[in-house]
Amino acid sequence: MFFKSSKINEFRLWGLLFTLIGMGLMIFGTAGIVLWGQTGKIFAGVFMVFGMIAMLLSVGVYFWAGMLSTSATMLDCPECKRPTKMLGKTDRCMFCRTKLTLDPNQATHTHTPG
Question: Domain coordinates of the chain in residue numbers?
Answer without folding.
Answer: 7-73
